[in-house]
């Protein structure tokens, strides 16, 4: 045998050994007991994924969830919500409300610093308020802050705002405004500044690198105003497709992702190897799905028709069939179990007989015996439109079937999001929509229900106009006493339920899978959700990924 | 025996195109008989039977709303075939008309029509269709029309070329000399003699249209819920591909096999038509 062949064999042998060597860590991983006790130490990297890449990290300009998901780790606000959804100071130590309820004075914590070591003072807060209200910046969040008549900084640690009249959602709005550094942004155009891609903040993390289309890496900010976070690096990978994200989760390349009900209750439980390494979390979601009527179109202006349709739809069936039971039947537009949700209200039950009776009362009869009701010779037929969201499409199919049973003919159309908004919602060119609303933490829903909010692009696109509701919404904005405010919004929910401008279909749960290497997560989730203490999450040394392979 | 029948006979003597022919016949029969062979109502929702694996009760499993996939596949086949045939009908009709005009009258008519063809061919047809559908309401009828209106160019070129060469042939010249009218020349001489290549292109066109409809439905711009089509069953399956493989596999296979069937038959017909293909008449 010529010597060359020996070399070949040696090379291929070492290659085999190399492959075998590569394989062993995975084998080890299967043996790791993730449920053992581990010491609470700092360090490590947490990798998650998002579907869309932020356009920039100044969230008041970007106005999108992708941006604020990242920037909320970089910037602080004046206030924040604690785990029980009560307001507490973030940058401020305490705040006072004047007796006439029109002036709020914020006192900043002492010795605050930006990540670049410059001091953070009330001048930065004033600058941020000026930026968000500056017409040139066209911030989508401006309206709350335009109500501030006067903003002043008596000293570097004090920031005072005065409103024309008491404005109850004010504190919530300050909890949502991320404070920007004046010394880096003064005189710059916020739409074009390089700061949006290279921000300097004050929170737990700072931007380390941003690889366009691939990932954003945040690393710990040594100057963090709230003290250090435990995990060193947060890497957010851009993976536009949900199924691709799930493949990455299964392959151990990301640590957490939001799940849909099928993944949560069917796919993961069916696979022992996934169950072994993934912990599942369920928390009340921050949104609900509804079916909304275009109240300017006949016959939806008739409350009997709206109620009839509500009785004809089996909401529990939608929760079971579409959300696999992972949803709640609601009767008010608030997160169930919070103080704003009215516990005395009950959802419309499924009662087709009552639906038929109400429709008959409204003048609908099946005069030609084709199974579809008519009024004035015209069949009761309408189109449900929704965006291309699987859950909403499925809900619409279930609704279609139930309405057919009481003699209403329904067509369904799923439309791509951009044209859905511009061609149908903004123009009011629709009969019925199936959509969702996010639930803010403040009960004020003026821009969704008040009759003044019907211009194209505004949120009252169903054309709801009820003087009683208008009045309650106006009162609710002026009332700062939490108990009185609660009464107002309980009345508001009751009136809304009775008038039925929309049908609540379900409030889904927020479902998350997190790799078991991540420890320190509150389970069960507190009202604020599992993310509230993410700065205390930690990854034990022995469970960390090989950092090189992690990016 | 006329030329078309001979052509088919010759094509079917080729085993591959025979397979294609059998596939098409089977798909046709199954879809036409869907109301009889389908075990369930394709739109019957059973929220207690969501995403069941294939079993004796549900041969192809159930989908995200507990509907029987086999039944939906059978009814979906009707949509795919209907769209394929009608769209090709439309495109062939337009193609013959314009091709005949261009090839018969020549001159500026020919130049104008052929430039229109060039312009249409320069636009990627799938994106053109996407744009048009985005403006219209997505529905079966619109899809058939739009696919038809954007795929006639090949037929036009084919017919024009046939007409150009046929009108130089002796029998046409003779007929013209005898004083035959243009309509007689076109309908009794030129058109019947160009029919064979048109049939080949139509058969291949059906495959393209079936694929196009599946693509559009997959993107949510095709057939609307709750109606089934192979494309939208495939979309439903996309999300659960690691788990509910049956939702992706069966419609994918159906599209594959059907398109393959049309292509095999089309290729066979083309070979049979080609005088260089070797076999004797």
Automatic annotation (TrEMBL), chain B:
Main location as per UniProt:
membrane
- Segments passing through the bilayer: 12-38, 79-105, 198-223, 243-265
Q: Give compartment(s).
A: Cell membrane
Q: Which InterPro entries match?
A: BP-dependent_transpt_permease, MetI-like, MetI-like_sf, OppC_N
According to the entry, every stretch annotated as the ABC transmembrane type-1 domain falls at 77-266
Query: Which keywords accompany this UniProt record?
Result: Cell membrane, Membrane, Transmembrane, Transmembrane helix, Transport
Any Pfam family the entry gives: OppC_N
**Matches recorded under SUPFAM superfamilies:** MetI-like
| UniProt membrane topology term | Multi-pass membrane protein
Query: What Gene3D superfamilies does the entry give?
Result: MetI-like (1.10.3720.10)
Q: Which GO terms describe its biological process?
A: transmembrane transport
Q: Name one GO cellular component term.
A: plasma membrane
PANTHER family for this protein: D,D-DIPEPTIDE TRANSPORT SYSTEM PERMEASE PROTEIN DDPC-RELATED (PTHR43386:SF1), OLIGOPEPTIDE TRANSPORT SYSTEM PERMEASE PROTEIN APPC (PTHR43386)
Family under the similarity heading: Belongs to the binding-protein-dependent transport system permease family.
Name of the protein this chain belongs to: ABC transporter permease
Q: Which organism is it from?
A: Methylotenera mobilis
- List the taxonomic lineage: Bacteria, Pseudomonadati, Pseudomonadota, Betaproteobacteria, Nitrosomonadales
């Amino acid at each position: 045998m010529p010597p060359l062949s020996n070399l070949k064999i040696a090379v291929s042998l070492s290659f085999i050994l190399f492959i075998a060597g590569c394989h062993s860590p995975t084998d080890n991983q299967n043996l790791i007991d993730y449920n053992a006790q581990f010491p609470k130490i700092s360090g490590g990297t947490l990798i998650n994924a998002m579907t869309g890449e932020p356009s920039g990290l100044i969230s008041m300009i970007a106005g999108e969830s992708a941006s604020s998901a990242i920037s909320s780790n970089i910037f602080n606000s004046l206030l924040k919500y604690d785990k029980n959804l009560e307001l507490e100071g973030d940058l401020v130590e305490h705040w006072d409300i004047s007796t006439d309820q029109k002036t709020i004075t914020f006192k900043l914590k002492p010795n605050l610093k930006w990540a670049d070591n410059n001091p953070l003072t009330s001048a930065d807060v004033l600058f941020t308020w000026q930026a968000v209200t500056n017409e040139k910046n066209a911030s989508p969040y401006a309206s709350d802050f335009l109500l501030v008549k006067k903003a002043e900084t008596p000293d570097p640690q004090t920031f005072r705002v005065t409103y024309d009249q008491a404005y109850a959602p004010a504190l919530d709005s300050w909890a949502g405004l991320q404070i920007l550094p004046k010394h880096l942004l003064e005189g710059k155009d916020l739409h074009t500044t390089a700061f949006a891609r290279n921000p300097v903040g004050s929170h737990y993390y700072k931007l380390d690198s941003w690889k366009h289309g691939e990932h954003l890496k945040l690393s710990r900010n040594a100057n963090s105003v709230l003290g250090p976070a435990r995990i060193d690096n947060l890497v957010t990978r851009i993976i536009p497709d949900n199924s691709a994200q799930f493949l990455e989760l299964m392959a151990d390349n990301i640590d957490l992702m939001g799940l849909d009900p099928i993944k949560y209750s069917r796919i993961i439980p069916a696979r022992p190897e996934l169950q072994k390494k993934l912990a599942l979390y369920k928390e009340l979601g921050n949104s609900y799905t509804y079916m909304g009527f275009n109240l300017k179109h006949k016959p939806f202006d008739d409350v009997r028709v709206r109620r009839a349709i509500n009785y004809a739809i089996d909401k529990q069936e939608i929760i079971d069939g579409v959300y696999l039971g992972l949803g709640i039947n609601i009767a008010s537009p608030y997160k169930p179990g919070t103080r704003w949700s009215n516990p005395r209200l009950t959802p419309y039950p499924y009662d087709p007989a009552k639906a038929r009776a109400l429709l008959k009362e409204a003048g609908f009869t099946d005069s030609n015996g084709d199974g579809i009701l008519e009024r004035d010779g015209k069949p009761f037929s309408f189109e449900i439109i929704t965006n291309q969201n699987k859950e909403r499409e499925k809900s619409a199919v279930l609704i279609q079937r139930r309405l057919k049973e009481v003699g209403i003919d329904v067509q369904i159309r799923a439309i791509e999001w951009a044209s859905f908004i511009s061609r149908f919602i903004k123009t009011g060119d629709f009969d019925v929509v199936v959509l969702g609303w996010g639930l803010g933490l403040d009960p004020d829903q003026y821009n969704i229900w008040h009759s003044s909010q019907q211009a194209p692009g505004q949120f009252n696109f169903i054309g709801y106009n009820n003087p009683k509701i208008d009045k309650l919404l106006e009162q609710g904005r002026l009332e700062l006493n939490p108990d009185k405010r609660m009464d107002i919004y309980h009345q508001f929910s009751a009136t809304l339920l009775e008038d039925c401008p929309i049908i609540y279909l379900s409030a889904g749960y927020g479902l998350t899978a997190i790799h078991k290497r991540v420890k320190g997560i509150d389970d069960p989730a507190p009202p604020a959700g599992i993310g509230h203490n993410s700065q205390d999450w930690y990854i034990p040394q022995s469970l960390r990924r090989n950092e090189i392979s992690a990016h | 025996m006329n030329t078309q029948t001979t052509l088919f006979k010759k094509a079917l003597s080729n085993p591959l195109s025979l397979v294609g022919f059998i596939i098409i016949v089977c798909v046709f029969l199954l879809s036409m008989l869907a109301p009889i062979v389908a075990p369930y109502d394709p739109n019957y929702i059973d929220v207690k039977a969501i995403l069941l694996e294939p079993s004796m009760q549900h041969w192809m499993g159930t989908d995200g709303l507990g509907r029987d996939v086999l039944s939906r596949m059978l009814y979906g086949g009707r949509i795919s075939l209907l769209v394929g045939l009608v769209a090709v009908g439309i495109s062939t009709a337009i193609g013959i008309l314009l091709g005949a005009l261009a090839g018969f009258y020549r001159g500026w008519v020919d130049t104008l029509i052929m430039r229109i063809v060039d312009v249409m061919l320069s636009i990627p047809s799938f994106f053109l269709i996407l744009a048009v559908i985005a403006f219209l309401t997505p529905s079966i009828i619109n899809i058939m029309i739009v696919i038809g209106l954007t795929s006639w160019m090949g037929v036009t070129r084919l017919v024009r070329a046939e007409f150009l060469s046929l009108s130089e042939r002796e029998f046409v010249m003779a007929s013209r000399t005898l004083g035959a009218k243009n309509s007689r020349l076109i309908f009794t001489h030129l058109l019947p003699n160009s029919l064979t290549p048109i049939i080949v292109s139509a058969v291949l066109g059906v495959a393209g249209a079936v694929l196009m409809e599946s693509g559009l439905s997959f993107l949510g711009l095709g057939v609307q819920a709750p109606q089934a089509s192979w494309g939208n069953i495939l979309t439903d399956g996309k999300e659960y591909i690691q788990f509910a493989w049956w939702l992706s596999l069966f419609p994918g296979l159906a599209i594959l096999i059907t398109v393959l069937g049309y292509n095999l038959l089309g290729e066979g017909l083309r070979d049979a038509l080609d005088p260089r293909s070797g076999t004797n008449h």
